[in-house]
Design a protein that fits this description.
333 residues; alpha/beta; UDP-N-acetylmuramoyl-L-alanine:D-glutamate ligase; 4-stranded mixed beta sheet
């Protein structure tokens, strides 16, 4: 691949529309100073200095898609509550469409509050409901998905599953059937609950822990032959076109009908691994929608995941930084 070809592919991202279906949340940050221990219990007292709310979960995937120049369309369920209003406002502040969101009085909007002092993460408080959405909400969400697929030219669909209940077997089946009818690539970032419900899809991307638990194999990180054998068997059983397993410091493994590759991780100064998986699936979706081979998709996504780990906190990928990295690492090969 030449430099001009790669630049052209990255430029074409701006023409892409990506539908993201999954669990959304608010990532809330509370910063402060700790100078003493509470007299009531042996715990630190934090004097707050600032707060910030950010888009999280599947919405962080949307931020990554947007940072790469494409148009994300988010489809999920939030509560009809104050946090839901904050979430909708965050979408509008980031110039994202809100027509894919479903609100419900029976659900609570997920908030994950991180309490931080002097760059040290002291505590996380989760406010959430994680049971599967009820039938009426499934129907409403499916109708939203169908409307979006009819209204927009969707270039890829991402299932971003955090096991919080927005994605159910019925929604997976309904959406994947529509996608197959319209020849739209489908990508999955799976979690344990729905792991086996993803069948006949284009791109399946568990991390190594999810892979071991979902496939139910006891393999060690670094045992390439055992990982490959398990992945080949599972890919065939689930009728998956491409399977990519991310393996932290060991890089990624990708397998399709043409063969397989183990791609090592780049050496980096790791600051924070939070959100790396969201970046990897986002970059994979746009590269796949642009017609790149599985190996190129894996190489570029692997670089992107590494780059965001160099930054503190959950941050979307920097498109220019990623392209420059590709020039250095892919064009030179």
């Amino acid at each position: 691949m030449t430099k001009n070809e790669l630049t052209s592919i990255f430029d074409s991202f701006k023409e892409k529309h990506i539908l993201i279906i999954g669990d959304v949340m608010i990532d809330s940050y509370l910063w402060g100073d700790v100078t003493r221990i509470s007299p009531e219990a042996p715990v630190p007292i934090i004097a707050t200095t600032s707060r910030e709310n950010r888009l999280g979960g599947a919405a962080n995937v949307a931020l990554n898609i947007q940072a790469l120049g494409a148009t994300p369309i988010l489809c999920s369920v939030i509560g009809d509550d104050d946090a839901g209003n904050i979430f909708q406002q965050l979408l509008e502040n980031n110039n994202m469409p809100t027509d894919g969101m479903v609100t419900s009085k029976q659900r609570k909007t997920t908030i994950k509050t991180r309490i931080i002092s002097h760059h040290q993460h002291l505590l996380r408080v989760d406010e959430e409901e994680d049971h599967p959405i009820e039938t009426a909400l499934q129907t409403k969400l499916n109708n939203h998905i169908q409307h979006i697929l009819n209204q927009y030219k969707i270039d890829a669909i991402i299932f971003e599953d955090y096991d919080k209940g927005a994605i159910t077997p019925e929604i997976i089946k309904f959406t994947s059937e529509l996608a197959n009818q319209k020849a739209i690539p489908t990508l999955v970032d799976p979690k344990k609950r729905n792991f086996d419900n993803y069948q006949s899809l284009t791109f399946f991307k568990p991390n190594f822990k999810e892979f071991k638990e979902g496939v139910k194999v006891d393999v060690k990180l670094g045992d390439e032959s055992a990982i490959l054998k398990a992945a080949q068997s599972y890919r065939k059983k689930q009728k998956l076109d491409i399977m990519m397993v991310t393996m932290a410091e060991k890089g990624v493994m990708v397998i399709d009908d043409e063969g397989h590759s183990f791609i090592p991780a780049e050496k980096r100064e790791i600051a924070d691994v939070s959100g790396a998986g969201d970046t990897v699936i986002s970059v994979s979706a746009l590269c796949l929608a642009s017609g790149l081979s599985s190996e190129y998709v894996a190489r570029i996504a692997n670089m992107a995941g590494g780059l965001v780990c160099e930054h503190s906190g959950v941050v979307p990928i920097d498109k220019a930084e990623l392209l420059n990295e590709c020039f250095l690492k892919i064009i030179s090969q």
